[in-house]
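Running this now, will post back.
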Amino acid sequence: MIKAFYKDRAVSEEINETDRFDTILFAMGRQPNVNSLNLQEANVDFSEKDGIYANKFLQTSNPDVYSVGDCLAAALSKDQAEQYPGCGPQFTHNSDVQARSIFKNALLGEEIDRTKTWLPWTTYTEPEISHVGKYGHELDKEGV
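Update: finished.
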């Protein structure tokens, strides 16, 4: 199955023909690389598929270990992973925000909640595609 996007519509169909395009966007998934971190010995909950589980303050199951970036799971715990599978947003600017939050949470005693941090999403295409906040389907589900 090939998903093709044309200027005026999106179609999802099998394409058995030759066509010419000006631009092709090829996207590959990424996975958190946690296998070599020896997390079991550090008593840090994780999964190969989701990454490292950390609470809303980015603290792992080991209270002395925090997690940020591409290896951070979307779920706050293994119990929540079925509802929120996979890793969190994998953006450089997200890792920067998380690192600053950890500094404030771990060293300054602040409580910056990762679930309440606004994160802009941008796909650098021509034109760019961006959003910040919740999607329409999430607001519908919450009755907003």
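The first helix runs from residue 92 to 108. More later if anyone needs it.
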